[in-house]
Amino acid sequence: MSSTQAEAPQAENCPLCDNKPRFMPLWFQENTETWIKCDICLVWCHAACLKLPSEECERIDEYHCPKCAISHGPSTLRKSLREHSRINYADLENGLTGNPYKWKRVLDSKLFVKPKFPKVRGDQLTLDWVRTFGLDEPILIDNPDGLDMKMPSKDITVSYIAATVGYDTPVDVIEQPSWNLYQWANYFDGPKRDQVLNVISLEISGTPLGDSIVRPRIVRELDWCENVWPKELKAFEYPKVQLYCLMSIKDSFTDFHIDFGGTSVFYHVIKGSKIFYFVRPTPPNLKKYSRWISSPEQSMTFFADLVKDCYEVRICAVIGGNFLHGYNIGGQLAIYEIEKRVDVPIKYRFPYFEKICWYAGKKYYRILKENPDSLSQREEKGLVELALFLSKLSSKLERNSKVSSEERHSIKENIPTEVRDPAKLSRRLSRRINKHITRNNEEIDAQLDSTNNYELHEVYANERSGSSPEFRLNTPTKIRLKIVSRKRNIEDINIEDSEDNKGVNEMANNMTDSSNEHQAKRILLTSQTNDTEGLFGDKRDGSPLTPQSGSTISWHEEDKHLEKL
Protein backbone atom coordinates (compact mmCIF):
# COMPACT_ATOMS: atom_id res chain seq x y z
CA MET A 1 0.00 0.00 0.00
CA SER A 2 0.98 3.64 -0.25
CA SER A 3 3.94 4.37 2.00
CA THR A 4 2.55 7.69 3.19
CA GLN A 5 2.18 7.94 6.95
CA ALA A 6 -0.94 10.11 7.17
CA GLU A 7 -3.64 8.62 9.32
CA ALA A 8 -6.53 6.86 7.62
CA PRO A 9 -10.10 8.00 8.34
CA GLN A 10 -11.96 6.45 11.27
CA ALA A 11 -15.19 5.80 9.31
CA GLU A 12 -15.75 2.23 8.10
CA ASN A 13 -17.26 3.33 4.76
CA CYS A 14 -15.17 4.80 1.96
CA PRO A 15 -16.32 7.20 -0.81
CA LEU A 16 -16.81 4.25 -3.18
CA CYS A 17 -18.80 1.99 -0.86
CA ASP A 18 -22.09 2.86 -2.60
CA ASN A 19 -20.66 1.41 -5.81
CA LYS A 20 -20.22 -2.09 -4.41
CA PRO A 21 -21.77 -4.82 -6.56
CA ARG A 22 -24.93 -6.39 -5.16
CA PHE A 23 -23.41 -9.86 -5.25
CA MET A 24 -19.82 -9.74 -4.09
CA PRO A 25 -17.22 -12.42 -4.81
CA LEU A 26 -15.48 -13.93 -1.80
CA TRP A 27 -12.21 -12.08 -2.40
CA PHE A 28 -14.18 -8.80 -2.44
CA GLN A 29 -15.84 -9.52 0.91
CA GLU A 30 -12.59 -10.52 2.57
CA ASN A 31 -10.74 -7.47 1.23
CA THR A 32 -13.03 -4.78 2.66
CA GLU A 33 -10.70 -4.47 5.66
CA THR A 34 -7.81 -3.35 3.43
CA TRP A 35 -7.50 0.38 2.74
CA ILE A 36 -5.31 2.23 0.25
CA LYS A 37 -4.69 5.96 -0.08
CA CYS A 38 -4.13 7.94 -3.25
CA ASP A 39 -0.79 9.75 -3.01
CA ILE A 40 -2.17 12.62 -5.10
CA CYS A 41 -5.62 13.50 -3.71
CA LEU A 42 -4.96 11.78 -0.33
CA VAL A 43 -8.37 10.05 -0.31
CA TRP A 44 -8.63 6.63 1.37
CA CYS A 45 -10.72 3.86 -0.22
CA HIS A 46 -11.32 0.16 0.33
CA ALA A 47 -9.07 -1.85 -1.92
CA ALA A 48 -12.11 -4.01 -2.64
CA CYS A 49 -14.12 -1.03 -3.85
CA LEU A 50 -11.28 -0.32 -6.29
CA LYS A 51 -11.34 -4.00 -7.31
CA LEU A 52 -7.72 -4.37 -6.16
CA PRO A 53 -6.76 -7.74 -4.59
CA SER A 54 -4.66 -7.38 -1.43
CA GLU A 55 -1.59 -8.93 -3.07
CA GLU A 56 -1.79 -6.24 -5.76
CA CYS A 57 -1.91 -3.53 -3.09
CA GLU A 58 1.26 -4.87 -1.51
CA ARG A 59 3.15 -4.41 -4.78
CA ILE A 60 2.24 -0.72 -5.14
CA ASP A 61 4.82 1.92 -4.26
CA GLU A 62 2.84 5.07 -5.17
CA TYR A 63 -0.87 4.71 -5.74
CA HIS A 64 -2.89 6.97 -8.08
CA CYS A 65 -6.67 6.63 -7.98
CA PRO A 66 -8.54 6.39 -11.34
CA LYS A 67 -9.27 10.15 -11.37
CA CYS A 68 -5.71 11.22 -10.54
CA ALA A 69 -4.19 8.68 -12.93
CA ILE A 70 -5.61 10.73 -15.82
CA SER A 71 -3.37 13.71 -15.00
CA HIS A 72 -0.51 12.06 -13.07
CA GLY A 73 -0.13 8.74 -14.80
CA PRO A 74 -0.63 5.21 -13.47
CA SER A 75 0.45 3.88 -10.07
CA THR A 76 4.06 2.77 -9.70
CA LEU A 77 5.23 -0.60 -8.36
CA ARG A 78 7.94 -1.29 -5.81
CA LYS A 79 11.38 -2.05 -7.14
CA SER A 80 11.80 -4.77 -4.55
CA LEU A 81 9.08 -7.01 -3.20
CA ARG A 82 11.02 -7.97 -0.08
CA GLU A 83 9.35 -5.45 2.24
CA HIS A 84 5.86 -6.36 1.10
CA SER A 85 6.25 -10.03 0.32
CA ARG A 86 3.06 -12.01 0.86
CA ILE A 87 3.15 -14.18 3.97
CA ASN A 88 1.42 -17.54 4.07
CA TYR A 89 0.19 -17.67 7.65
CA ALA A 90 -1.03 -21.24 7.29
CA ASP A 91 2.53 -22.33 6.45
CA LEU A 92 3.88 -20.38 9.40
CA GLU A 93 1.43 -21.99 11.78
CA ASN A 94 1.43 -25.54 10.45
CA GLY A 95 4.68 -26.11 8.62
CA LEU A 96 7.11 -23.73 10.28
CA THR A 97 6.23 -24.01 13.94
CA GLY A 98 9.78 -25.09 14.72
CA ASN A 99 11.21 -21.92 13.22
CA PRO A 100 12.04 -19.60 16.16
CA TYR A 101 12.20 -16.56 13.90
CA LYS A 102 8.81 -16.95 12.21
CA TRP A 103 7.41 -13.71 13.61
CA LYS A 104 10.52 -11.80 12.60
CA ARG A 105 9.78 -12.82 9.01
CA VAL A 106 6.23 -11.52 9.35
CA LEU A 107 7.29 -8.20 10.89
CA ASP A 108 10.09 -7.67 8.38
CA SER A 109 7.56 -8.01 5.58
CA LYS A 110 5.44 -5.12 6.85
CA LEU A 111 5.60 -1.35 6.74
CA PHE A 112 4.42 0.44 9.87
CA VAL A 113 3.43 4.05 10.45
CA LYS A 114 5.97 6.16 12.33
CA PRO A 115 3.87 7.91 14.97
CA LYS A 116 4.09 11.41 16.36
CA PHE A 117 3.26 10.52 19.94
CA PRO A 118 3.91 13.26 22.50
CA LYS A 119 7.37 13.46 24.06
CA VAL A 120 7.62 15.11 27.45
CA ARG A 121 10.23 15.55 30.15
CA GLY A 122 9.83 13.68 33.40
CA ASP A 123 9.14 16.85 35.35
CA GLN A 124 6.36 17.83 32.91
CA LEU A 125 4.32 14.69 33.48
CA THR A 126 2.12 15.91 36.33
CA LEU A 127 -1.53 15.50 37.30
CA ASP A 128 -2.25 18.89 35.74
CA TRP A 129 -0.69 17.65 32.47
CA VAL A 130 -2.87 14.53 32.54
CA ARG A 131 -5.96 16.61 33.33
CA THR A 132 -5.26 18.71 30.25
CA PHE A 133 -4.01 16.16 27.71
CA GLY A 134 -5.27 12.86 29.09
CA LEU A 135 -3.77 9.42 28.50
CA ASP A 136 -5.40 8.70 25.16
CA GLU A 137 -2.16 7.83 23.38
CA PRO A 138 1.32 6.58 24.33
CA ILE A 139 3.66 9.11 25.93
CA LEU A 140 7.42 8.93 25.37
CA ILE A 141 9.77 10.21 28.07
CA ASP A 142 13.36 10.50 26.89
CA ASN A 143 14.66 12.00 30.12
CA PRO A 144 13.31 10.35 33.30
CA ASP A 145 14.61 13.13 35.57
CA GLY A 146 11.71 14.50 37.54
CA LEU A 147 9.63 11.30 37.44
CA ASP A 148 10.51 10.69 41.10
CA MET A 149 11.10 6.97 40.57
CA LYS A 150 13.75 4.44 41.52
CA MET A 151 14.76 1.65 39.15
CA PRO A 152 17.43 -1.11 39.15
CA SER A 153 20.87 -0.47 37.71
CA LYS A 154 21.48 -1.06 34.01
CA ASP A 155 24.05 -3.68 35.08
CA ILE A 156 21.35 -5.98 36.46
CA THR A 157 21.44 -9.57 35.18
CA VAL A 158 18.82 -12.28 34.84
CA SER A 159 20.80 -14.42 37.31
CA TYR A 160 20.60 -11.61 39.87
CA ILE A 161 16.84 -11.27 39.29
CA ALA A 162 16.39 -15.03 39.79
CA ALA A 163 18.43 -15.01 43.01
CA THR A 164 16.65 -11.94 44.41
CA VAL A 165 13.10 -12.95 43.55
CA GLY A 166 13.74 -16.64 44.34
CA TYR A 167 15.01 -19.51 42.20
CA ASP A 168 11.89 -21.59 42.91
CA THR A 169 9.52 -18.85 41.77
CA PRO A 170 7.37 -20.25 38.94
CA VAL A 171 7.38 -18.26 35.71
CA ASP A 172 4.96 -18.35 32.80
CA VAL A 173 7.38 -18.87 29.96
CA ILE A 174 5.63 -18.97 26.62
CA GLU A 175 5.75 -22.60 25.38
CA GLN A 176 7.36 -23.71 28.70
CA PRO A 177 4.55 -23.44 31.29
CA SER A 178 6.21 -25.33 34.16
CA TRP A 179 9.54 -23.50 34.45
CA ASN A 180 10.89 -21.67 37.48
CA LEU A 181 13.32 -18.74 37.59
CA TYR A 182 16.35 -21.04 37.99
CA GLN A 183 15.53 -22.78 34.70
CA TRP A 184 14.82 -19.47 33.02
CA ALA A 185 18.17 -17.99 34.11
CA ASN A 186 20.03 -21.06 32.82
CA TYR A 187 18.25 -20.74 29.49
CA PHE A 188 18.79 -16.98 29.23
CA ASP A 189 22.51 -17.12 30.06
CA GLY A 190 23.13 -20.36 28.15
CA PRO A 191 25.57 -20.43 25.22
CA LYS A 192 23.02 -21.78 22.75
CA ARG A 193 19.28 -21.33 22.60
CA ASP A 194 17.22 -23.53 20.32
CA GLN A 195 13.99 -21.63 21.09
CA VAL A 196 12.99 -17.98 21.29
CA LEU A 197 11.25 -17.64 24.66
CA ASN A 198 9.68 -14.75 26.47
CA VAL A 199 8.76 -13.84 30.09
CA ILE A 200 6.12 -11.12 30.28
CA SER A 201 4.12 -11.84 33.45
CA LEU A 202 6.59 -12.07 36.37
CA GLU A 203 4.98 -9.91 39.08
CA ILE A 204 7.63 -8.92 41.64
CA SER A 205 5.72 -6.85 44.23
CA GLY A 206 6.71 -7.83 47.78
CA THR A 207 10.05 -9.36 46.75
CA PRO A 208 13.44 -7.81 47.62
CA LEU A 209 13.73 -6.68 43.99
CA GLY A 210 10.25 -5.18 44.01
CA ASP A 211 10.87 -3.44 47.33
CA SER A 212 13.91 -1.70 45.83
CA ILE A 213 11.80 -0.16 43.05
CA VAL A 214 9.69 3.00 43.27
CA ARG A 215 7.21 3.55 40.45
CA PRO A 216 6.98 6.98 38.78
CA ARG A 217 5.17 9.56 40.89
CA ILE A 218 2.44 10.13 38.28
CA VAL A 219 1.64 6.39 38.28
CA ARG A 220 1.38 6.34 42.07
CA GLU A 221 -0.92 9.36 42.00
CA LEU A 222 -3.23 7.87 39.36
CA ASP A 223 -3.33 4.20 40.39
CA TRP A 224 -6.68 3.12 41.87
CA CYS A 225 -4.83 0.39 43.80
CA GLU A 226 -3.10 3.20 45.68
CA ASN A 227 -5.99 5.64 45.90
CA VAL A 228 -9.26 3.73 46.22
CA TRP A 229 -8.31 0.25 47.48
CA PRO A 230 -8.40 0.24 51.31
CA LYS A 231 -4.89 0.25 52.71
CA GLU A 232 -5.87 -2.12 55.53
CA LEU A 233 -6.77 -4.80 52.96
CA LYS A 234 -3.42 -4.72 51.17
CA ALA A 235 -1.91 -7.16 53.65
CA PHE A 236 -4.54 -9.74 52.69
CA GLU A 237 -5.71 -9.11 49.13
CA TYR A 238 -5.31 -6.56 46.40
CA PRO A 239 -4.83 -6.50 42.61
CA LYS A 240 -1.19 -7.55 42.38
CA VAL A 241 -0.39 -6.06 38.98
CA GLN A 242 1.71 -3.03 39.88
CA LEU A 243 5.24 -4.30 39.13
CA TYR A 244 6.29 -6.67 36.36
CA CYS A 245 9.74 -7.72 35.25
CA LEU A 246 9.79 -8.54 31.53
CA MET A 247 12.70 -10.55 30.10
CA SER A 248 12.84 -11.31 26.41
CA ILE A 249 15.28 -12.89 23.98
CA LYS A 250 16.11 -11.07 20.77
CA ASP A 251 13.44 -11.59 18.08
CA SER A 252 10.82 -12.77 20.60
CA PHE A 253 7.29 -11.61 19.86
CA THR A 254 4.12 -11.16 21.90
CA ASP A 255 0.98 -11.08 19.79
CA PHE A 256 -1.40 -8.12 19.75
CA HIS A 257 -3.43 -7.80 22.93
CA ILE A 258 -5.22 -5.28 25.13
CA ASP A 259 -3.95 -5.21 28.70
CA PHE A 260 -6.48 -6.65 31.12
CA GLY A 261 -9.29 -4.37 32.17
CA GLY A 262 -8.15 -1.71 29.70
CA THR A 263 -5.42 -0.75 32.16
CA SER A 264 -2.77 1.80 31.35
CA VAL A 265 0.82 0.57 31.49
CA PHE A 266 4.17 2.16 32.24
CA TYR A 267 7.38 0.69 30.83
CA HIS A 268 10.94 1.48 31.83
CA VAL A 269 13.56 -0.29 29.72
CA ILE A 270 16.65 -1.10 31.76
CA LYS A 271 18.72 -2.98 29.21
CA GLY A 272 18.48 -3.67 25.49
CA SER A 273 15.58 -2.37 23.42
CA LYS A 274 11.91 -3.09 22.87
CA ILE A 275 9.67 -2.43 19.89
CA PHE A 276 5.97 -1.76 20.39
CA TYR A 277 3.27 -2.01 17.74
CA PHE A 278 0.17 0.07 18.52
CA VAL A 279 -3.30 0.10 16.99
CA ARG A 280 -5.65 2.91 17.99
CA PRO A 281 -8.52 1.56 20.18
CA THR A 282 -11.27 3.10 18.05
CA PRO A 283 -14.73 1.47 18.15
CA PRO A 284 -14.23 -0.12 14.68
CA ASN A 285 -10.81 -1.47 15.69
CA LEU A 286 -12.18 -2.84 18.97
CA LYS A 287 -14.87 -4.69 17.03
CA LYS A 288 -12.23 -6.19 14.77
CA TYR A 289 -10.11 -7.13 17.81
CA SER A 290 -13.09 -8.80 19.47
CA ARG A 291 -13.77 -10.87 16.35
CA TRP A 292 -10.08 -11.69 15.88
CA ILE A 293 -9.43 -12.80 19.45
CA SER A 294 -12.39 -15.20 19.37
CA SER A 295 -11.63 -16.54 15.90
CA PRO A 296 -10.24 -20.09 15.50
CA GLU A 297 -7.89 -18.60 12.88
CA GLN A 298 -6.40 -16.05 15.29
CA SER A 299 -2.95 -17.66 15.33
CA MET A 300 -2.83 -17.59 11.53
CA THR A 301 -3.89 -13.96 11.16
CA PHE A 302 -1.65 -10.96 11.79
CA PHE A 303 -3.97 -8.49 13.50
CA ALA A 304 -2.26 -5.42 12.01
CA ASP A 305 -3.45 -6.61 8.59
CA LEU A 306 -7.06 -6.10 9.69
CA VAL A 307 -6.75 -2.41 10.55
CA LYS A 308 -5.83 0.71 8.65
CA ASP A 309 -2.79 1.82 10.64
CA CYS A 310 -0.32 0.17 12.99
CA TYR A 311 2.28 2.34 14.72
CA GLU A 312 5.81 1.20 15.48
CA VAL A 313 7.69 2.63 18.47
CA ARG A 314 11.25 1.63 19.39
CA ILE A 315 12.58 2.24 22.89
CA CYS A 316 15.72 0.99 24.60
CA ALA A 317 15.28 -6.51 30.90
CA VAL A 318 12.07 -4.06 31.27
CA ILE A 319 10.28 -2.97 34.43
CA GLY A 320 6.61 -2.13 33.98
CA GLY A 321 3.24 -2.19 35.66
CA ASN A 322 -0.49 -1.89 35.07
CA PHE A 323 -2.89 0.55 36.69
CA LEU A 324 -6.54 1.59 36.50
CA HIS A 325 -7.33 5.28 36.88
CA GLY A 326 -10.06 7.87 36.61
CA TYR A 327 -9.08 9.42 33.28
CA ASN A 328 -10.15 6.52 31.05
CA ILE A 329 -13.02 4.91 32.94
CA GLY A 330 -15.13 4.40 29.83
CA GLY A 331 -12.30 2.68 27.97
CA GLN A 332 -11.52 0.41 30.92
CA LEU A 333 -15.14 -0.68 31.25
CA ALA A 334 -15.40 -1.30 27.49
CA ILE A 335 -12.39 -3.63 27.54
CA TYR A 336 -13.74 -5.47 30.59
CA GLU A 337 -16.99 -6.12 28.70
CA ILE A 338 -15.05 -7.45 25.70
CA GLU A 339 -13.11 -9.80 27.99
CA LYS A 340 -16.35 -11.17 29.41
CA ARG A 341 -18.00 -11.46 26.02
CA VAL A 342 -15.15 -13.45 24.44
CA ASP A 343 -14.72 -15.46 27.67
CA VAL A 344 -11.12 -14.53 28.51
CA PRO A 345 -10.02 -16.85 31.35
CA ILE A 346 -10.16 -15.25 34.81
CA LYS A 347 -6.41 -15.77 35.16
CA TYR A 348 -5.79 -13.26 32.38
CA ARG A 349 -8.18 -10.55 33.59
CA PHE A 350 -7.52 -7.68 35.98
CA PRO A 351 -7.86 -9.12 39.52
CA TYR A 352 -10.82 -7.82 41.55
CA PHE A 353 -11.91 -5.54 38.69
CA GLU A 354 -15.52 -5.19 39.83
CA LYS A 355 -14.51 -4.80 43.46
CA ILE A 356 -12.12 -1.94 42.73
CA CYS A 357 -14.85 -0.27 40.65
CA TRP A 358 -17.12 -0.32 43.72
CA TYR A 359 -14.34 1.23 45.80
CA ALA A 360 -13.84 3.87 43.10
CA GLY A 361 -17.57 4.61 43.05
CA LYS A 362 -17.53 5.02 46.83
CA LYS A 363 -14.58 7.44 46.73
CA TYR A 364 -15.92 9.52 43.85
CA TYR A 365 -19.32 9.79 45.52
CA ARG A 366 -17.56 11.32 48.52
CA ILE A 367 -15.69 13.75 46.24
CA LEU A 368 -18.95 14.75 44.53
CA LYS A 369 -20.43 15.54 47.95
CA GLU A 370 -17.45 17.43 49.35
CA ASN A 371 -15.49 18.96 46.46
CA PRO A 372 -17.10 18.30 43.07
CA ASP A 373 -15.31 21.17 41.32
CA SER A 374 -11.99 19.37 41.81
CA LEU A 375 -12.96 16.81 39.16
CA SER A 376 -11.75 17.19 35.59
CA GLN A 377 -14.08 16.87 32.61
CA ARG A 378 -12.51 13.50 31.77
CA GLU A 379 -13.35 12.18 35.23
CA GLU A 380 -16.88 13.57 35.03
CA LYS A 381 -17.57 11.80 31.73
CA GLY A 382 -16.09 8.58 33.10
CA LEU A 383 -18.19 8.74 36.27
CA VAL A 384 -21.39 8.75 34.23
CA GLU A 385 -20.29 5.42 32.73
CA LEU A 386 -19.08 4.07 36.08
CA ALA A 387 -22.45 4.82 37.68
CA LEU A 388 -24.21 3.02 34.84
CA PHE A 389 -21.86 0.02 35.15
CA LEU A 390 -22.45 -0.29 38.91
CA SER A 391 -26.19 0.13 38.40
CA LYS A 392 -26.23 -2.78 35.93
CA LEU A 393 -24.32 -4.95 38.39
CA SER A 394 -26.69 -4.20 41.27
CA SER A 395 -29.77 -4.74 39.07
CA LYS A 396 -28.59 -8.30 38.39
CA LEU A 397 -28.99 -9.01 42.10
CA GLU A 398 -32.71 -8.24 42.06
CA ARG A 399 -35.11 -11.15 42.43
CA ASN A 400 -36.61 -10.84 38.97
CA SER A 401 -33.28 -10.57 37.16
CA LYS A 402 -32.57 -13.31 34.63
CA VAL A 403 -28.98 -14.17 35.51
CA SER A 404 -27.46 -17.47 36.45
CA SER A 405 -26.82 -18.32 40.08
CA GLU A 406 -23.12 -18.49 39.24
CA GLU A 407 -23.06 -14.92 37.90
CA ARG A 408 -25.15 -13.69 40.83
CA HIS A 409 -22.69 -15.27 43.27
CA SER A 410 -19.71 -13.72 41.45
CA ILE A 411 -21.27 -10.23 41.59
CA LYS A 412 -22.05 -10.56 45.31
CA GLU A 413 -18.56 -11.83 46.05
CA ASN A 414 -17.00 -8.74 44.44
CA ILE A 415 -19.06 -6.18 46.35
CA PRO A 416 -16.99 -4.87 49.29
CA THR A 417 -18.43 -5.33 52.77
CA GLU A 418 -18.20 -1.54 53.20
CA VAL A 419 -20.81 -1.15 50.45
CA ARG A 420 -23.87 -2.28 52.39
CA ASP A 421 -26.42 -1.21 49.78
CA PRO A 422 -24.89 -1.38 46.27
CA ALA A 423 -28.11 -0.29 44.50
CA LYS A 424 -28.33 2.77 46.72
CA LEU A 425 -24.69 3.72 46.08
CA SER A 426 -25.05 3.40 42.30
CA ARG A 427 -28.25 5.51 42.34
CA ARG A 428 -26.68 8.21 44.49
CA LEU A 429 -23.53 8.29 42.37
CA SER A 430 -25.61 8.63 39.21
CA ARG A 431 -27.75 11.43 40.64
CA ARG A 432 -24.75 13.34 41.99
CA ILE A 433 -22.67 13.26 38.80
CA ASN A 434 -25.60 14.13 36.52
CA LYS A 435 -26.69 16.96 38.81
CA HIS A 436 -23.11 18.27 38.91
CA ILE A 437 -22.73 18.21 35.11
CA THR A 438 -26.14 19.86 34.61
CA ARG A 439 -25.29 22.66 37.06
CA ASN A 440 -21.97 23.36 35.35
CA ASN A 441 -23.60 23.51 31.93
CA GLU A 442 -26.24 25.94 33.21
CA GLU A 443 -23.56 28.19 34.73
CA ILE A 444 -21.58 28.27 31.51
CA ASP A 445 -24.70 28.97 29.43
CA ALA A 446 -25.62 31.85 31.74
CA GLN A 447 -22.19 33.38 31.33
CA LEU A 448 -22.35 33.02 27.55
CA ASP A 449 -25.64 34.93 27.53
CA SER A 450 -23.83 37.95 29.00
CA THR A 451 -21.69 38.31 25.86
CA ASN A 452 -24.56 39.35 23.59
CA ASN A 453 -23.08 42.81 22.94
CA TYR A 454 -19.98 41.28 21.43
CA GLU A 455 -19.22 39.03 18.53
CA LEU A 456 -18.32 35.67 20.08
CA HIS A 457 -15.36 33.53 19.07
CA GLU A 458 -14.99 30.31 21.09
CA VAL A 459 -11.66 28.64 21.72
CA TYR A 460 -11.51 25.40 23.71
CA ALA A 461 -8.42 24.20 25.55
CA ASN A 462 -8.01 20.83 23.89
CA GLU A 463 -6.19 17.60 24.81
CA ARG A 464 -3.73 18.23 22.00
CA SER A 465 -3.19 21.92 22.68
CA GLY A 466 -0.02 23.38 24.08
CA SER A 467 0.30 25.52 27.17
CA SER A 468 1.01 28.87 25.45
CA PRO A 469 -1.79 30.12 23.19
CA GLU A 470 -1.40 33.25 21.11
CA PHE A 471 -4.07 35.74 20.08
CA ARG A 472 -3.30 38.23 17.33
CA LEU A 473 -5.53 41.11 16.22
CA ASN A 474 -5.28 42.83 12.86
CA THR A 475 -5.93 46.27 14.32
CA PRO A 476 -5.60 47.71 17.83
CA THR A 477 -8.98 47.18 19.43
CA LYS A 478 -10.61 46.66 22.76
CA ILE A 479 -11.29 42.98 23.38
CA ARG A 480 -12.87 41.01 26.11
CA LEU A 481 -11.58 37.65 27.31
CA LYS A 482 -14.05 35.46 29.16
CA ILE A 483 -12.40 32.62 31.04
CA VAL A 484 -14.23 29.49 32.14
CA SER A 485 -11.65 28.05 34.47
CA ARG A 486 -10.91 24.57 35.76
CA LYS A 487 -12.47 25.60 39.07
CA ARG A 488 -15.62 26.83 37.27
CA ASN A 489 -14.84 30.41 38.29
CA ILE A 490 -15.56 33.01 35.66
CA GLU A 491 -13.69 36.24 35.03
CA ASP A 492 -14.12 39.10 32.59
CA ILE A 493 -10.93 40.83 31.53
CA ASN A 494 -10.91 43.90 29.31
CA ILE A 495 -7.61 44.53 27.59
CA GLU A 496 -6.61 47.51 25.48
CA ASP A 497 -4.65 45.65 22.85
CA SER A 498 -1.42 47.32 21.82
CA GLU A 499 -0.08 47.16 18.30
CA ASP A 500 2.25 44.29 19.14
CA ASN A 501 -0.48 42.37 20.98
CA LYS A 502 1.61 42.02 24.14
CA GLY A 503 -1.30 42.56 26.48
CA VAL A 504 -3.36 39.82 24.91
CA ASN A 505 -0.58 37.27 24.75
CA GLU A 506 0.57 37.89 28.31
CA MET A 507 -2.97 37.26 29.51
CA ALA A 508 -3.24 34.14 27.35
CA ASN A 509 -0.02 32.76 28.82
CA ASN A 510 -1.20 33.46 32.35
CA MET A 511 -4.51 31.74 31.68
CA THR A 512 -2.88 28.46 30.76
CA ASP A 513 -0.06 28.47 33.28
CA SER A 514 -0.41 25.13 35.09
CA SER A 515 0.43 26.85 38.39
CA ASN A 516 -2.46 29.32 37.98
CA GLU A 517 -5.56 28.24 39.90
CA HIS A 518 -7.67 29.73 37.13
CA GLN A 519 -6.07 27.60 34.43
CA ALA A 520 -8.42 27.91 31.49
CA LYS A 521 -10.56 25.00 30.46
CA ARG A 522 -12.43 27.03 27.90
CA ILE A 523 -11.52 30.49 26.65
CA LEU A 524 -14.07 32.75 25.02
CA LEU A 525 -12.52 35.49 22.92
CA THR A 526 -14.98 38.25 22.05
CA SER A 527 -14.39 41.44 20.14
CA GLN A 528 -16.29 44.40 18.75
CA THR A 529 -14.68 43.95 15.34
CA ASN A 530 -14.93 41.25 12.72
CA ASP A 531 -11.23 41.10 11.91
CA THR A 532 -10.05 38.92 14.78
CA GLU A 533 -7.51 36.19 14.24
CA GLY A 534 -6.84 33.57 16.89
CA LEU A 535 -4.22 30.86 17.19
CA PHE A 536 -3.51 28.23 19.82
CA GLY A 537 -0.08 26.67 20.24
CA ASP A 538 -0.06 22.97 19.38
CA LYS A 539 3.27 21.85 20.81
CA ARG A 540 3.41 19.71 23.92
CA ASP A 541 6.42 21.64 25.27
CA GLY A 542 4.26 24.75 25.39
CA SER A 543 5.99 26.72 22.62
CA PRO A 544 3.52 28.44 20.29
CA LEU A 545 3.13 27.71 16.63
CA THR A 546 3.90 30.33 13.98
CA PRO A 547 0.80 32.53 13.69
CA GLN A 548 -1.29 32.08 10.58
CA SER A 549 -2.74 35.13 8.89
CA GLY A 550 -6.22 35.57 7.57
CA SER A 551 -7.99 32.93 9.62
CA THR A 552 -10.07 32.71 12.74
CA ILE A 553 -9.52 29.47 14.64
CA SER A 554 -12.12 27.65 16.68
CA TRP A 555 -10.73 24.77 18.71
CA HIS A 556 -13.39 22.32 19.87
CA GLU A 557 -12.57 19.74 22.52
CA GLU A 558 -14.95 17.18 21.07
CA ASP A 559 -13.48 17.42 17.56
CA LYS A 560 -9.84 17.21 18.66
CA HIS A 561 -8.69 19.22 15.68
CA LEU A 562 -8.24 22.79 14.45
CA GLU A 563 -11.05 24.04 12.30
CA LYS A 564 -10.83 27.16 10.11
CA LEU A 565 -14.01 29.21 10.11
UniProtKB/TrEMBL annotation:
Domain JmjC: 204-365
CDD domains named among the record's database cross-references: PHD_OBE1_like
SUPFAM superfamilies with a match to the protein in the record: Clavaminate synthase-like, FYVE/PHD zinc finger
Record field: compositional bias (Basic and acidic residues): 555-565
Gene Ontology molecular function: histone H3K36me/H3K36me2 demethylase activity; metal ion binding
Function: Histone demethylase that specifically demethylates 'Lys-36' of histone H3, thereby playing a central role in histone code.
Protein name, entry field: JmjC domain-containing histone demethylation protein 1
